[in-house]
Every structure is written in C-alpha cells, then in structure tokens.
Amino acid sequence: FFFSSRRRHTRFLPVSWARRCVQETGLKLDNELEVILVSDPETDKSAGCMAVDVGSMEDPKDVQGLAHFLEHMLFLGSEKYPEANSCDEYLSQNSGYSNAYTTIDKLSLIHI
Prior knowledge:
Radius of gyration: 16 Å
Structural class: alpha+beta
Order of helices and strands: EEHEEEHHEE
Shape: globular
Strand order of the largest sheet: 5-7-6
Largest sheet: 3 strands, antiparallel
Number of helices: 3
C-alpha cells in the first residue's frame, strides 16, 4: 500500500495503483459531503467506501454500542433496496459484497 493524504482525509491505496496511471478527483456534493473518486482504466471492477468521522467514542454513556448498532442498521434496507439484505443479494448476484466496521473514531461502509 502507498499512503495518500488530501486535506484531513487519509487513506491507503494499493501499490499497484501507484505504479499505474490512476486518476484521482475530489468533489463536494450539494449536502457538503466530500467525495474522492479514483479511476483505474485497467480494471473491470468498481467499489465504494464511505467513512464517517464518528465512532464508538462518540456513543452516549447510556447507549454504549450505538455506533456499531447503526453500522448494522445501514444494511437493513433503503429506498432503492427496501427489503433487508436485498442490496447484499444484488451485490452477490454481480460478484460483489459489502462490509462495514466501527472503530473508536470512525464508521466505514464498503461495497465492492
């Protein structure tokens, strides 16, 4: 992995990306969410990761585990995939998967 940092965002990218011509573009959405897009013309895969700078250390004292609980709630349904696990089923049918994790200072959601 090679280290790449932009503003206060820090991430690790595979070394193979550092050796190839990979394009990186940053933008800000209307809702103020900052997005970093990485394009690699040599692959036929796509992935997305969302990291929120709030983790288990932000849990209220009377609701410990809230961040981890909310992580699991992200997979229970959405407007596009209203049934529980329907997004995971779609990803699986297309050779993809999803995962998430919570740390003391971050919640991350990954779709591949």
